[in-house]
């Protein structure tokens, strides 16, 4: 028994750092935690993109209404709004695509964007028709 205790004391005194098994166990635990966190992180990113898209949709919609008030007609395209929107700002939907603007008859128009899940959000001078 005495020899075993001496051997154990020598083994402990020579040991420095971590063993390969300890490192692998820690990496496995970290990997599992990251795997469990990914869906919630992805969901938070998508919510942020959808909120940003809705905000930008309202901004462009307001610029269309202001253009209409000053010019007594609707813009032909969204490029006509360059004087009504901040310079060097690109407005995109949550899927990073350009908003779709279509001019209807009279004072009717639609401004359309797509959320990250594919749902379509439209504005037509009123509040956007989709809840976020």
Give a brief rundown of this model.
The protein is mainly α and 132 residues long. It has helices at residues 2-14, 20-71, and strands at residues 100-103, 109-114, 120-123.
Task: Give the tags.
132 residues, mainly alpha, 3-stranded antiparallel beta sheet, 2 helices, 3 strands, rod-shaped
Unreliable runs, pLDDT <50, ≥5 residues?
A: none
Q: Please give the order of strands in the largest beta sheet.
A: 1-2-3
Q: Major sheet: size, sense and barrel closure?
A: 3 strands, antiparallel
Distance between the termini: 71 Å
* Total strand segments: 3
Order of helices and strands: HHEEE
The radius of gyration is 29 Å
What structural class results from the helix and strand content?
Answer: mainly alpha
Number of helices: 2
Overall, the morphology is rod-shaped
How much of the residues is beta strand, in percent?
A: 5-15%
């Amino acid at each position: 028994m005495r020899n075993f205790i001496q051997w154990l004391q020598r083994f402990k005194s020579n040991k420095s750092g971590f063993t390969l098994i300890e490192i692998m166990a820690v990496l496995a635990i970290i990997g599992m935690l990251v795997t469990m966190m990914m869906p919630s992180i992805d969901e938070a990113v998508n919510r942020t993109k959808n909120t940003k898209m809705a905000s930008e949709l309202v901004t462009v919609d307001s610029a269309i209404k202001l253009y209409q008030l000053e010019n007594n007609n609707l813009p032909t395209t969204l490029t006509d709004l360059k004087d009504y929107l901040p310079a060097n700002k690109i407005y995109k939907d949550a899927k990073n695509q350009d908003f779709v603007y279509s001019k209807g008859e009279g004072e009717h128009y639609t401004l359309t964007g797509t959320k990250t899940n594919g749902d379509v959000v439209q504005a037509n001078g009123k509040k956007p028709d989709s809840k976020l």
